[in-house]
Write a structure and sequence with these properties.
Blueprint: H1 2-21, H2 28-45, E1 67-71, E2 74-78, H3 81-89, H4 91-98
Antiparallel strand pairs: 1-2
């Protein structure tokens, strides 16, 4: 009985691996979107920010950057649209918390 269970389990593992390896190639529009996202990420990585952390949530920018905003002549990076919106509600309070 144990041998049968083992054989069934191995069969399921092998079949699931084979299913995953035969996934269709990404559609051309997905490749274009991925290339565009990579270009944006590359451009954002070259910018110089006033802080190495998202001023709203404190997350390190190297972990992920999706938006930016300029405040008092300085550029700040944000991990999400929501963090940027939160920062813009009261920038001074967020900047004080960074110190």
């Amino acid at each position: 009985m144990r041998m049968l269970t083992l054989l069934v389990t191995l069969g399921l593992i092998v079949s699931s691996c084979q299913e995953n390896s035969t996934q269709p190639a990404p559609a051309p529009e997905n490749k274009a979107m991925a290339a565009q996202a990579e270009a944006v990420d590359s451009t954002l990585a070259k910018l110089s920010f006033a802080s190495k952390k998202d001023p709203s949530c404190g997350m390190p920018l190297k972990a992920g950057l999706t938006d930016t905003s300029s405040y008092k002549g300085k550029l700040y990076g944000f991990c999400s649209k929501e963090c940027k919106e939160d920062f813009l509600k009261d920038p001074e309070a967020h900047l004080a918390a960074l110190k």
